[in-house]
Structure formats: C-alpha cells, structure tokens
Design brief:
It is an enzyme of class 4 (lyase). Pfam families: Aldolase_II, PWWP. This is Probable methylthioribulose-1-phosphate dehydratase. Its cofactor is Zn(2+). Keywords: Amino-acid biosynthesis, Cytoplasm, Lyase, Metal-binding, Methionine biosynthesis, Zinc. The protein is an alpha+beta fold. The chain has 2 domains: 221 residues, SH3 type barrels; 205 residues, 3-Layer(aba) Sandwich (L-fuculose-1-phosphate Aldolase). Helix content is 34%, strand content 18%. The protein contains 16 helices and 19 strands. The strands form 4 sheets. Strands 12-11-10-9-13-19-18-17-14 form a 9-stranded mixed beta sheet, with helices on both faces. Strands 3, 4, 5, 6, 7 and 8 form a 6-stranded antiparallel beta sheet that branches. It is elongated and about 75 Å long. The protein starts with 19 loop residues before the first helix and ends with a helix. Bound molecules: the ligand CSCCC(=O)C(=O)COP(=O)(O)O and zinc ion (ZN). The site of the ligand CSCCC(=O)C(=O)COP(=O)(O)O has 13 residues, from loops.
Amino acid sequence: MKKNSGEQVKKSRYGRVSTKRKFDEECDNSLGRKTVIISTKKNKSKLPVSSVSSPASTSNNVHSNTRNNKVNEFNIGDIVWAKPGKYPVWPGIVISDPNFNIHYKEENNVTMLHIYYCNDAYKRNWIRINQIFEFVGKDSMLREFPKLTTHVTRSKIKSKWNRAVDEATYLTMINREDRIKAFFSNTFLHNIEMTNNAQNKKPSIEQSENDQLSAIYNQQPAIENQQATIENLPSTSCNLQINTNLFDDDFKQNITNHEVQYLNYKKEHPRVLIPELCRLFYLNGWVTGTGGGISIKYENHIYIAPSGVQKERIQPEDLFVQDIHGVDVELPPPEKNFSKSQCTPIFMCSYTLRDAGAVIHIHSLEVVKLCLLSPGKDIRINDLEIIKGIYNEEKGKYYDNDEEVVIPIIENSKYERDLVGTFKLALRKYPMTSAVIVRNHGMYVWGKDWQSAKTQCECYDYAFKVMIFKKLNRL
Ligand SMILES: CSCCC(=O)C(=O)COP(=O)(O)O
Ligand SMILES: [Zn+2]
C-alpha cells in the first residue's frame, strides 16, 4: 500500500499500522521546530533530535540544539520518549541493564540504549537509539507530534499513559542523581495514592488498561527482581514537595493539613529518611523479620520507628518522636495502634552515653554467622582497607588500615530491653567502639549522624563478610 508521500505503510500482525517511519518523518516535519539530524557512527541512520529543551536537558546541559555527532549522547538518568517499533510512544528513563551494568551498546552495528518505562511496573528493554528522543513535556508532545500521540490519547491506555507522562515530568524536575532513586521507589505513584486516599478515592487502574499494556509489551523481557544497587537505591518519599506541584488546586485543597505537613518535609528530615533507609536496609538484608531499623536525632528530638512492623513499608507519619529524657513529643496516628521499637532503650544508651546522632540496629545474617564462628568476647578486624571507614570513638578519628578494630559481643537476652545492662558495660569496657554485637541476634552501630552510622554499618558488614570467608577457609 502506497501513500502520497511514497511512504510504505506496513501493517503489523495485529493489524496496527507501523509508525516507525512516520515517527522519523513527523519529527523531521514538525511545524516550527528545528530538528538536528545526526548520524550514528556505524549505522548512519538518521536521528531526529528535538530542539525543544526539556527541564532535564536545561539542568544537565546534556542535550542541546547543538548536539554533536557522538554515537550516544544519552546518559544514565535522562528522561526520554521511546517509540519501540509498533508499540506506543512512551516515556522512560535511561538506566543500565542490571544484568550487564551498561546503558548503551552496539548490536549489529546499531546503537542501543537501555530504558525503563515510566508507570509500567518497571518494564525495561534495549531500544535502538533512533527510536528515542529527549523528553519534552506532554503539551509539547501533543502539540508537535499529534500523529504519534493520537493512538494513546484516544485508547483505553490513555490514563495509564497520562500517568506515565506525569511521572516522567516529575522525574525531570529533580536532580539526575535523585531520579533513579525516585523512579524505583515509586515516589510519584506513592504521592498520587496519598492524594487519592485523601479524597477517599482509590487510584483506578482499569483492568482493561493493564491487559492492553501487557499485550503491548508481551514481547519485552520481564524485569528481574529489583536489586539493591547504588543505582536503584530506594527513597520512600523524598521530593514530595516538588511532586505536589503536579497536582492541580482542586487536588491540593483536598489533601488534609496533616498530609500537607508531610509533603513539606525536606528529604533530610527523619520522617523522610527513616522510611527511606529502612527500605534500603531491608533490601540489604539488615532488617528482615520486622526487627531492627534506624533511629535519628534531629533538632534535639529522637525519631523512632514502630515495633514489629514491615520496616520497609514505614510511612512518615508512623514514627514516634521523643525528647532525650524519653518524653513523647509526637505519636503515630492512634488508629494504627503502633508501639515504639523495642530497641528504644538501647538507642537511648547510644544517644545519652555516646552522644550519637543516629543509631542503626541490624539483624544481618553475616553478624550471626560471624558470632557462630567467634566464641570469644569480641571480634577483631585487621588488615583491611575498609576499616578506614570505622570511627574510633576514644581517639576521635577514623581508624588507619594498619590498626585493629575491636567490637564487643554481648550475649543475647529474651527481650531487647534486657540488653541494656550488658550494653552499657560494653560501652565502658570498649571506649573506642562504635558498635556492639548481640550474639546470634544482630548489631547496634551508631555515629554522629545518620550518614556516619550508615557508612560504618556498611564497613562492618563488609569486614564481617571477609572475616567469615577467612575463618571458613582457615586463612
Ligand atoms: C524478629 S524481631 C525480634 C525482636 C528484635 O530483635 C527487634 O529488633 C525488634 O525490633 P522492633 O523495632 O521491631 O521492636
Ligand atoms: Zn533486634
């Protein structure tokens, strides 16, 4: 079948007209916009590049009208439009393939980029670079590429597509470094849900939409389990403030004051950090079986998670806040029926006796394994570069790699609160330590702030893995 332009119109086996050629043509011909045609090094295929700068390109200065002739100018974290063959044009984010840790490659002389799609259950695939262009906002897209968007804006997937575009728009508003975290933590969708709940409405994703999208993407590889790498480090609710800008005034008016209060917390606030870090610690295997977590001191108040809950699902309002004397200042909503973490007495020992700014309690398998291999009263770590990340509280400085780090082990007890006596004794006997191991149970680690506590916990965890290896292999 021939059209006036001479374009060969192909029909897919589903009877849908192929839009691949139209996509390039539409980009080239779009009214009032310049397009820069560049050739990729090997396949020489023409890549139309939008001259409309998105917030992302403005802030990162990655894409511009004067994009040069490189094979791949997309970087990890770029927000893009992708038009994979017969599938609808969809917003996505450039992120490395978790299996190979690369975000672009040459395949059969074609440059491919690895994309995760917005609002689509973390579906991802490798896609030709000439099927991608930088993300422009929804209005520009609808105005300038009407043919590309007609299908999605009229079909049953319209609302899903709209949410994907909103998510992409939201991601362009935040720093590139935070985008991947925000993407994997579903920050945007979380807020939509929060807003909808405030209106006593559930987010309505129609089944038919899901079915249709499943059919559309059924040839794409399914996403593997989310991995706790630095790339997809989850962040529960940072940037909530920015996100509300996407809601119209009606929406905002329907959010209760209580919720607005949480939307306004900065991302360094414990009500944001504790849920975010608990989620990370869960993925690290540190807070399994509901136990463990982190407490943070902020402006002379101590923030503590609830006890016995799925720590990776804690919400900002779930936290207990008390002063340094243990007097409650803020409580979670009473209907949640939460009680304060059983670890509170130990957390308080670290705050009062060591002037900690944050305390982490982990239930990692490594700690328990190491205890099984170490019947003595303490663990000694030598000859590891990683110990430079551990703080010597007695000397007030970080260890050198030729020093020995000694961590006391106290015996476990029936209840966490019964550990207080031996915990205090350990602090007295080991003034240099920033951690106490509880045999066959876990470990408490503290630092002057949450970053220090987290970094040290990572260093201990790493060192324990090496020690287990050494002990098992009699090295
Ligand atoms: C399986 S958890 C047993 C109790 C425990 O060790 C613990 O750390 C409890 O912490 P929580 O913050 O859930 O009270
Ligand atoms: Zn515990």
